[in-house]
Amino acid sequence: MRREAIREYLASALWAMPTAAVVLALIAGAGVSSIRIDPASPFAVLVFQGTSDDARSLLISIASTIVTVIALVLGLTIVALQLASTQFSPRLLRSFLRDIPNQLTLSVFVATFAYSTAGLYTVGVASGQRIEDFPRIAVSGALLLLFVSMVMLVFFVHHLAHSIQIDQVMRSVERGTLRVLERSFAEGDPDLRVPEPPRGAVALPAPRSGYVQAFHVEAFVAALSSRGLTARIVPVVGRHVVAGTPVVWVWEDDGARPPLQEALTELRRTLPTMVRVGYERTLEQDIAFGIRQLADIASKALSPAVNDPYTANQAVDHLATVLAALAERRHGPRAVRDGHGVVRVYVPARDFGYLLELALGQVRRYGANEPRVVRALLRVCGDVAGFGDESHRAVVRRYVETLLDDVRRMVPQPADREPLLAEGAALLASLP
């Protein structure tokens, strides 16, 4: 759990990759500086041909140029973050920070600066005296890094211009959400009845306030099994918890008496390896967070200040892809068993109705008076219904009925309202 938390943090830390690049640049510079090429070698024409003063002037020029370029790149990055936050959704900032091309570009620039600046300590100077002998191949390496930096600058501008396009933003969120669905989604049992904590149950409090980012119950199940205990997790992934509130209820198998203090001590020690609480939501296991991002884009596009129904329709189309993938799976709580087949942990989860409402509920409320948005919602409902079973179609049916009620109330013009109601009625009739 701790390794995953560190990896998750470093993936969105804008300083991590550039810091590693600086270290690698210094190591590479030290190694290349020890290489000497014979003037008679055929490779001698490929190395720097100037004097030591020329080499120092070149390194100073490269370092000063790269500092200016770094300031430009950081400025453009801040502009992109501000644009994404105000125009799309503040929850998209984390995706921009995790963008590998942005981190790689900044890493190349700071590596070039560190390499060139460190070269001033060795080129043309020895024991405080000026010398003519210097590592020419190392200076040539600085020139090579300068050209690479210029190529990366052009690539960065190209990538940044595409990354702030709304189509690319929504595509990235959709792909990230589907990736979470494939890697970490655990199917539940909608018919499972999660027991209420019995009289002898004891609560294990949340160690800190924040959002539940991930569950890993394997070690916790082993600890429960060795003590003959059963547990019920209270929050779902993505839910905010307050320090000191119950995060897990634990009881003896018979539920009549509290667990022994020794067992509770062991479970409290194991709890941080089972649940991770952080200050922000992540896409590690939280599928609802990806849906929330796309729903935010659609809601903001439908606000009176923006009034962009087409962008809302695009967001709904991307949500359709996610909902179709969710409709193929079973949702609900799950029971985790130990090696003997005994249920040890009940893990809560969001059902399909919640996810559909999260994805399309705000769009319905904000866009039910716009015929194009209504048609997009009806189209999505028809597509999603074709992927699920009867329980999923029942959820879709309830949503469509609510949408049509909103259309009757909010679309005053019969020429706009009646075709929408007819299309909705046809969709309801097609649902088995």
UniProtKB/TrEMBL annotation:
Q: Please name the InterPro entries in this protein's record.
A: DUF2254_membrane
Q: Which UniProt keywords apply?
A: Membrane, Transmembrane, Transmembrane helix
What is an example of a Pfam family matching this protein? DUF2254
Instruction: Identify the domain of life.
Output: Bacteria
Where does the sequence pass through the membrane? 12-37, 57-83, 104-125, 137-161
The protein's name in its UniProt record: DUF2254 domain-containing protein
Source species taxonomy? Bacteria, Bacillati, Actinomycetota, Actinomycetes, Micrococcales
